[in-house]
Specification:
69 residues, alpha+beta, three-stranded antiparallel beta sheet
Length: 69
């Protein structure tokens, strides 16, 4: 399954520095065996926005014109 991020419903939330909504949570990073690997900050509003974004554009292609000479 891989590592998971768990957000406690009991803990409060903080204002996010990016979006400004009070949806920043301290989350636990948990391994498959249940071991807590660490903690991280997760904004649930910003995460929702990321999952809805368009796919990344393809890398810049070479220019259509070739320099003369």
């Amino acid at each position: 399954m891989g590592t998971q991020i768990r957000i406690s419903r009991d803990d409060g939330s903080l204002p996010c520095e990016v979006c400004g909504f009070p949806t920043m949570h301290v989350a636990q990073v948990v391994a498959d065996d249940g071991t807590v690997l660490g903690r991280t900050l997760v904004c649930t509003t910003c995460q929702l926005g990321r999952s809805r974004q368009e796919p990344a554009a393809e890398p810049d292609s070479p220019p259509d014109e070739v320099p003369a000479g």
